[in-house]
Amino acid sequence: MEKQLHSSQFIKEHSFPFWIRRFFHDHEHVPLLHGHDFVELVYVVRGEAQHVFEGHYYDIRSGDVFIINPGEVHTYSINPGKEIEIINCLFMPDLIQGNWLLDLGISQSMDYFYVHPFLDKRERFHRCLNLNGQDATRSLFLLETIIHEFDNRQPGFETLIRLQMVELLILLSRAYRQAEGQNGRESVRNSAKQLLVRRICGYLERYYDKKVSIPVLCELFNISSRQLNRIFKESLGMTVVDMIHRIRIERAKHLLLETDEKVITIAGRVGYEDPAFFSRLFHREVGCSPGKYRESS
Question: In terms of C-beta distances under 8 Å and separation of at least 24 residues, what long-range contacts does 223-230 make, across chains too?
């Protein structure tokens, strides 16, 4: 039975949804199998172990970096006599807001944040990003700088950490794209159009509970509304609004099964201000009401 961790256990300031620590784990001291409602970025500083993710085991080693999405279940398995040192970086998606990326002109430079974490799970961890050389040195330096800022909390530390996290995710995205090219994965599937669709879907997965409008997406990803809906129709057979509803309903199904929260609360948590509209949409998509879905499952 997995343990469910809540952001409030780590993140104490609503205005700055972030937490970071360095951990050492050995065979006798590993975290329980757990899920959580925040994003977790893990960097393996040294050692080796197995990452237990959604029931599968994946070897991890020094230089590996991966992201665990909200709702995903994981832990580690470490052989006797072995140990692993990791940096755990926990944050809510709205730590890095779209308008920030837009102002900085980097909305399409975040593939490791918006694309890789939403790949097929086995594909994603069989192709875990491993850093070495200058990439590893620079990424570790950034993470250690963030830890220093977080621990000392000097004036302006929140802004510096946000900027450093954006820098880190851009560096990881560069390494990710380079690794993709070396793996010979630059196929039609990863053409510019398909990659753009993946980026936008990743953005929607991160901010499903916010008010996401077509004009904001168009400005963020430098595309017209007509082009946006056309490429979604061609690639996925649905509109952007359909995709938003699908993501929200899937998240609502998870919350209905994993929590005891009322339907009206869950509606708000997945981005619907009108519980009646949420219930009608849920029935249309799933075939029963949210209450019936909870009971039958």
Answer: 223/196, 228/200
pLDDT at position 185, please?
52
Using an 8 Å Cβ cutoff, are 6 and 22 in contact? no
Burial 49-80 (b: 16+ CB within 10 A, else e): bbbbbeeeebebebbbbbbbbbebbbbbebee
Confidence band (pLDDT; 50, 70, 90) for 297?
confident
- 89 within 8 A of 20, measured Cβ to Cβ: yes
Alpha-carbon gap, residue 204 to 212, rounded angstroms: 8
Q: List the alpha helices (DSSP H) in 209-274.
A: 214-220, 225-236, 240-258, 263-269
Q: How far apart are CA 93 and CA 69, in angstroms?
A: 10
Pairing of strands 83-91, 64-68: unpaired
* Cα angle value 45/123/125 (rounded, 5°): 20
Pairing of strands 56-61, 39-53: antiparallel
Per-residue confidence (pLDDT) for residue 188, from 0 to 100: 42
CA 157, CA 126: separation in Å to the nearest integer?
36
Beta-carbon contacts of residue 158 (< 8 Å; ≥ 6 apart) = 15, 16, 18
pTM here?
0.87
**CA–CA separation, 39 and 5 (whole Å):** 11
Q: Is residue 249 classed exposed, middle or buried when 0-12, 13-18 and 19+ CB atoms within 10 A define those classes?
A: buried
Closest CA relative to residue 111, chosen from 67, 145, 141, 71: 67
Helix, strand, coil percent values for the chain (each to nearest 5): 50, 20, 30
